[in-house]
């Protein structure tokens, strides 16, 4: 799918980290961007910075009505053909916490709600909108979801995050098959150790240790490097149903 001026992309988690980098990369290609997030201050600043090319919409990705409004904004902004879904949260939960208490069901449920249910909610609404498009070279749209290497191999304390991201990995091939008849592609990126707001919450010595554990390059990934992959997926018509 050729990314070009006049086309609109919806980017969730679009005002920080991986989402912001993806939004900026899409803007550089001339696309209009609807950036969905809960951070109103940062959203307003980005909307001001990029003028009429970016529109900020405050929305909870797991809320059907709010995301329907965000998708409607994307449809009104131009030819809505691209989704990059980066919104997600983390938080430590153990089955038995260090004080001997049971892990928080509330925290577990909230992470599943945002990361897994939010992905399904965003994808279903975006797909309905994209399906209305006229097919161009066999495509009506393309969607990039975000999982994590933790979805394959989580660490202690990551049980809600790991299971939510495993859910995103599990829905990828099914979604691609489901939307094949609509000529809409779906792929997922499962980043390893990237320098994101979630990782920024860790102590600096822990961040340095994680960076050193990466064989090559021996550093944390940069958000713009995620964005490079996201744009490649959108543009490469032979990528579908894969988690990278």
Write the layout of secondary structure elements.
Elements: E1 7-12, H1 17-28, E2 32-37, H2 40-49, E3 54-58, H3 64-77, E4 79-85, H4 105-130, E5 141-146, H5 159-179, E6 184-189, H6 197-200, H7 204-212, H8 223-235
Parallel strand pairs: 1-2, 1-4, 2-3, 4-5, 5-6
Short synopsis of the structure:
The protein has 244 residues and is of the alpha/beta class. The protein is built from eight helices and six strands.
Number of helices: 8
What's the Cα radius of gyration? 18 Å
**What is the molecular shape?**
globular
Residue runs with pLDDT of under 50 for 5 or more positions: none
Distance between the termini: 19 Å
Report the structural category.
alpha/beta
Mean pLDDT, to the nearest integer, reads 94
Give the SSE order as H and E letters: EHEHEHEHEHEHHH
- Work out the helicity level: 40-55%
The largest sheet, given as strand count, sense and whether it forms a barrel, is: 6 strands, parallel
Question: What proportion of the residues form beta strands (DSSP E)?
Answer: 5-15%
Number of extended strands? 6
Give the strand order, joined by hyphens, for the main sheet: 3-2-1-4-5-6
């Amino acid at each position: 799918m050729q990314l070009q001026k006049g086309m609109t992309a919806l980017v969730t988690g679009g005002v920080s980290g991986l989402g912001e980098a993806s939004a900026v990369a899409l803007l550089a290609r001339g696309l209009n961007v609807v950036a969905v997030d809960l951070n109103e201050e940062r959203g307003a600043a980005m909307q001001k910075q990029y003028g009429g090319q970016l529109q900020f919409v405050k929305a909870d990705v797991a809320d059907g009505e709010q995301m329907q409004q965000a998708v409607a904004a994307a449809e009104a902004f131009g030819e809505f053909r691209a989704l990059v879904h980066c919104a997600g949260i983390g938080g430590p939960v153990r089955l038995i916490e260090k004080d001997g208490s049971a892990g928080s069901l509330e925290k577990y449920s909230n992470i599943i709600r945002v990361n897994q249910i939010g992905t399904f909610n965003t994808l279903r609404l975006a797909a309905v909108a994209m399906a209305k498009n006229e097919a161009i070279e066999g495509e009506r749209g393309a969607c990039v979801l975000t999982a994590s290497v933790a979805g394959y191999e989580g660490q202690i304390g990551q049980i809600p995050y790991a299971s939510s991201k495993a859910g995103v990995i599990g829905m990828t091939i099914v979604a691609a098959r489901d939307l094949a008849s609509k000529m809409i592609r779906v792929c997922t990126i499962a980043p390893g150790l990237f320098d994101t707001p979630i990782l920024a919450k860790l102590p600096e010595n822990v961040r340095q240790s994680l960076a050193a554990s990466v064989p090559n390059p021996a550093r944390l990934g940069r958000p713009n490097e995620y964005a490079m992959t996201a744009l490649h997926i959108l543009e490469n018509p032979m990528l579908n149903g894969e988690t990278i």
